[in-house]
Amino acid sequence: MNLGGLNDLYRQLIIDHAQHPHHHGELPAASQTITLNNPTCGDVIKLAVTFADDRIEQIAFSGEGCSISQASASMMTDLVQGQTRAQAKKEIQVFLEMLMENPEATQDDPDELLGDAAVLAAVVKFPARIKCATLAWKALEQAISEEEAHE
CA-CA distance, 115 to 86, in Å (whole number)? Predict the structure, then answer.
């Protein structure tokens, strides 16, 4: 497959997640509910997480935003559902480093660790969209921190 075809495939994956988001909705009995917004473009993500035995038992998001923010939230919820908090924190770290082009980034392979969410690496070419892509991930990071603070 040529590079153009690969870019089209990645673009289609993002569009599919944005138009048909996974884990979209509310969790009335959530352990943690975090709402974050990106004032630059108006994205709002409300993330609800139910933790049980150090695992993300259930996760859902709602809110409004651009295709990048909605697709990123959908991909992130697919990835972390059922994982331990430590696993999710590692994935958050790798995702944020991938988008920030951090030279001290871990040696973990984003393609292997992040699944579909690794396609969002292309967002680094559009600095104004990085906050859109990271919004849900930062909400999960905050939810995990708040859950750990209540233990």
Answer: 17
d(CA 102, CA 116): 20
Q: What pLDDT, in 10s, does the model give residues 84-132?
A: 999 999 999 999 999 986 645 556 677 788 988 999 988 888 888 999 9
Long-range contacts of 40-46 (CB under 8 A, 24+ apart): 40/128, 40/131, 41/65, 41/66, 41/128, 41/131, 41/132, 43/69, 43/131, 43/132, 43/135, 45/69, 45/73, 45/135, 45/136, 45/139
Q: pTM, whole model, 2 decimals?
A: 0.90
CATH 3.90.850.10 fits 3-149, yes or no: no
